[in-house]
Amino acid sequence: MLIGTVISTVGLVLSGFWLLLLLPGWAVTLHGMRNLRMMVYHQCAHRNMYRRRRLDAAIGRATSGLLIIQHFGRYSKEHVSDHHAAHHMTLRDPTVQAFLVSLDLHPGMTRRRMWRRVLGKIFSPWFHLNFMVARIRSFWHGSDIREKAIAVTLYGGAATITIVTGTWHILLVAWIVPLFPLFQVSNTLRLCVKHTFPSQDVTVHRGKEYFGSLTNAIFIGEPAPSPDLPTARRLAAWARWTTRMLFVHAPARYLVLTGDTVVHDYHHRYPATPKWANYIFERQLDADRGSPGWPPYHQAWGLVPAVNLVFDSLSVADPEKYDVERLREVSKRELFAAFDD
Q: What is the torsion angle, in degrees rounded to the nearest 10, for the CA atoms of residue 116, residue 117, residue 119 and residue 124?
């Protein structure tokens, strides 16, 4: 995050052609923010970062104060009790609430319509304004006094210094842009790949077979071109493959599917494993062992196919089980906080 902010600041100070540095600066800053949120904060909530309760909680509170996200105490409680328990992918699950109310996606909608709705949200200033206000409220309401002190000190101090020195635009462009609109775009796309909805013909909603079927890994990439292709077609295929790896798959991994989000299925099978930092390799080892006690692993290749898989599952999900009318009493503050569970 520091490196990315410095890159953006250099671009703003030098101006002119150097403003192009904002693109890598924003990307690096956002990547740091998302890794801090999706890995460090997440593992602290499971008391699994350093496996020392007070230290993990202190890191969690500092993270929520810096990123202005749902305060650590509430997140820890809801994430473990509703998302990693019997309420997983029910109306009690924050992920389901975010889909049905915040994104306004429902059973029976076509994949195309869901994509249009999500893209409309991503490019809507009103959506981002509501999201930002909800994040601030979710952080402030009920947060620990230490979390509030961290946020007030950081942002109050930064605002005062930049206003006095006339550099407020640097704070706004180099930090606030990645913190809110860019973070929220990444947040929304990440939500759309987390879990599939159970089909209507599933009658048993418990046990490892059921819970293991609701989460897929996302492998970033695609098969390399066949060496048996004619020379001209092979060259064209390699050019297309290289272009997609660089400009489709790499940004998806770096900006949306950061950290261990690509193998979120492994986390749901072993949420308290001390080997979480080696997530990709541990998942492969578990798959090679046949994932004892669990159903076989499944995966989608690429961000868009992973989103399609989730959208298709919601399209044919039970409309009665996921009736949005039963969620009207949920506050917007909690709904937007649910995006990143």
A: 130
Compute the radius of gyration of the chain from its Cα atoms.
21
Long-range contacts of 196-202 (CB under 8 A, 24+ apart): 196/309, 196/310, 196/313, 197/89, 197/107, 197/310, 197/313, 197/314, 197/317, 197/322, 198/89, 198/313, 198/317, 198/318, 199/313, 199/316, 199/317, 200/316, 200/317, 200/318
- Distance, CA of 28 to CA of 39 (rounded, Å): 16
Q: Taking the CB of residue 263, how many other CB atoms lie within 10 A of it?
A: 26
Please indicate, yes or no, whether the overall pTM of this predicted structure exceeds 0.90. yes
- Helix (H) or strand (E) holding 218, with range, is strand 217-219
Number of residues that make up the chain: 341
Q: What pLDDT is attached to residue 94?
A: 81
DSSP H helices, 85-218, are 94-97, 111-122, 125-140, 145-151, 157-165, 168-170, 177, 183-191, 207-212
Cα→Cα distances 37→15, 24, 232, 241, Å: 31, 20, 45, 31
Contacts of 89 (CB under 8 A, 6+ apart): 95, 96, 195, 197, 198, 214
Give the residue among 215, 212, 196 at the shortest CA–CA distance from 204: 212
23-39 pLDDT, tens digit per residue, is 999 999 999 999 999 99
Report CA-CA distances (Å) from 42 to 9, 64, 161, 253: 29, 11, 32, 18
Residue 331 pLDDT: 53
CA 45, 81, 338, 203 torsion-angle sign: positive
Mean pLDDT taken over the chain: 91
Q: How many CB atoms lie within 10 A of CB 72?
A: 26
Question: How confident is residue 111, by pLDDT bands cut at 50, 70 and 90?
Answer: very high
**Rounded-to-integer distance, Cα 304 and Cα 119, Å:** 12
